[in-house]
Amino acid sequence: MTLLAEGDFIYPFVPNALFYLFATLTCVFAVAVLFTSNIVRMAFYLTLSLGATAGLFMVAGAQFVGAMQFMIYVGGTLVLLIFGVMLTAQQRFVSMKTSAADWVLAAGVGGALFVLLVYAAISVPSWGESNPHLRDIAAAEARAETP
């Protein structure tokens, strides 16, 4: 049973609206992690981004994966990160500065990975067509179930 199945709502747009909400929050807080120099705020934004990712899994019907995402990443890893920063920090606020060379390197690597992913997605010959072999298997299973 999925938590947010289409038939469970009076308004069928609710699962789609929740999906777009959680996807937007995930992206916004991930970008906030990139552009924040205070490491404690980075950890907080990362917590919110991973929490929204757990919400995406919940909306998609994968409640176990969403719960594990929340418990392991949000509950465990980030708490460890925050306490590690708080216990080892010598100053009141730890701040990370990124040089221009680091931004250029990151943009180059990220751009190369993006191009690779777009190429992989475009190189799939038939997105909309079903596999004839799988269609034959499904037809055989349907015939076998019919009395």
Describe the fold and architecture:
With 147 residues, this protein is mainly alpha-helical. The chain folds into 2 domains: 1-97, Four Helix Bundle (Hemerythrin (Met), subunit A), CATH 1.20.120; 99-147. It contains 5 helices and no strands. The chain is extended and about 75 Å long. The relative contact order is 0.08. The model is unreliable at 1-6 (pLDDT under 50).
Low-confidence stretches: 1-6
**What about the largest sheet?**
none
What is the CATH fold-level name of the largest domain? Four Helix Bundle (Hemerythrin (Met), subunit A)
How many separate domains make up the residues?
2
Write down the overall geometry: extended
Residue-averaged pLDDT: 80
Set down the secondary structure blueprint.
Elements: H1 14-35, H2 39-59, H3 63-88, H4 100-122, H5 132-145
Features:
147 residues; mainly alpha; Four Helix Bundle (Hemerythrin (Met), subunit A); 2 domains
Summed up, what is this model?
Helices cover 72% and strands 0% of the residues. By secondary structure, it is mainly alpha-helical.
